Every structure is written in C-alpha cells, then in structure tokens.
Amino acid sequence: MDRLGGLLLLLVFSPILLTSALVVRVRLGSPVLYTQYRVGRGGQTFRFYKLRTMVPDRRTTPGPYQGEERRVSHKTRHDPRVTPVGARLRAWRLDELPQFINVIKGDMSLVGPRPELPVIVDGYEGWQHRRHEVKPGITGPWQVSKRNGTPMHEFIEMDIEYIENITLSRDLALLIKTPTAMFGGRKGY
User: Fold this and answer.
1) How many CB atoms are located within 10 Å of the residue 96 CB?
2) Were 102 and a residue from 50, 70, 80, 108 both cysteine, which residue would form a disulfide, CB within 3.0 to 4.6 Å?
3) Strand runs labelled E in the chain
4) Do residues 150 and 73 lie in contact, with contact meaning Cβ atoms separated by under 8 Å?
5) Could you read off the pLDDT of 47-98 as tens digits, one per residue?
C-alpha cells in the first residue's frame, strides 16, 4: 500500500518536484539532491533523499546549532546555512518530495516516525530505540500536532505512543491532516 501510494503521489507531484529541482540546479548549482544516511526499521541505515536547501559546505559553516545542542530542538528558522531558495522550498515542504522515492524503494512508509541521523541514534537511551520497530515515515503524529522548537524527547515519546496504537484508520487520518499542517503554517511541519 505504501509503495503504491508513494508512486501515485510521486506522479502527482512530479511537475512540482521537477520544477523545484530545476530551481535548485539554476540557483544553487549541483548537487540538486541532498542525500544522507538515516536510521530506519530494525536500526538499519538507508540513503535518505531531499532537495538541497543549504549552502554546499554547510558542515563547515558556523551556525547556531553545532554539536550536542543542535538537537535540543528540532529545527531553527534562522539557520544561516539555509539559502533563500532553500527557505522557500522548506516553507512549502517541497524539499521533502524526493522522499517518495524512499517510500517506493521500501525504506520508508508514508506514515511513521521520522528517520534520524545515525549520530543522533547512537546517543539514544534503550527505550528510544522503540522508534525503529516500524518503518520511518514522511509524516506522523508530531508533524500534524506540534510546533517546531519542541524538545526532541517529546517527539520520540509521541512516536512511541503512535507505534503502540498504530491502526490503518489512524494512518489515514494523519495523511489527511498533513496538508493542513504543512500549508497552514501553525503546526509542526
């Protein structure tokens, strides 16, 4: 069901994805796709895709979220490494569209906990690894119910509650709520 849904959504959004990719290529240069390894189901790593939104040397550019404090809150709106084009792509969540490829490949689900970086997962306490009992998702409960800036441990608690109470009807409800959260600008996305 995920793969079919991912394929259909990729086809529906392909004109927007291709246009966004072209904008990234023209305005930011290569590479257009940003890839990194994330931790998925069973603790296995996989290659995660997004459109590039930051300067190419973002790991060496000083910023407010370097080191351990970088993950105290999930994101910052004023990260100097994000380009103006990247900020627009992020505002409309267009940078996330390549993740439908992850769904089609079977690395991700449409709904589930967001996949995290291996370096972050290495610091997890035992209970936090429960997030890896299911495939990670493009959207999930905290994306439709929380604002950015919420401490990471609260996201993990929401993910675990989701896993403990997972149902098809709940997944469908989260999918239906996602566009409002994305484009309404008042929730976690």
Assistant:
1) 17
2) 108
3) 33-39, 45-51, 109-111, 137-139
4) yes
5) 999 999 998 765 555 555 554 445 444 556 678 889 999 999 998 889 999 9
Question: What pLDDT does residue 151 have?
Answer: 73
- Please check whether residue 113 is in contact with residue 42, taking contact to mean a CB–CB distance below 8 angstroms: no
Confidence of residue 145 (pLDDT cuts 50, 70, 90): confident
- What is the pLDDT, as a whole number, of residue 107? 97
Cβ–Cβ under 8 Å, residues 133 and 43: no
Q: Is 67 left (phi over 0), alpha (psi -120 to 50) or beta?
A: left
Q: Which amino acid is at 100?
A: F
CB 158 within 8 A of CB 141: yes
